[in-house]
Amino acid sequence: MDTQERLAYLKKRNEELKPIVFVGFETKEELYKYRDTIKSQRNEYYSNLKEIDKLEYELMSPEEREKLEEYNKQVELKKQGKLFDYLIAKKEEEKRKQG
User: Fold this and answer.
1) Which domain holds residue 10?
2) Which of 2, 47, 91, 95 is the most buried (most CB within 10 A)?
3) Model confidence at 99, in pLDDT bands (50, 70, 90)?
4) E-strand spans in the chain?
């Protein structure tokens, strides 16, 4: 099975698992009891999510990867409160390159 086929299979499988994994309950006790009964499906669902992310990254073009990495960098800088400084420095660097 090639990467595209594997990705499609995992996405379809997770759509099948979603109604099993995401169910609402009145109490936490009911939820925890239900989680125990669907432990393998729940583990499969979350394992599939990780593999889906990996496969989607593998299928990205170099430009798409670069954009994603830049986005992730900016998200991390925002969490640290350093995004504004980074964007200003980046803008100044672009100006220097132009002229």
Assistant:
1) 1-59
2) 47
3) confident
4) none
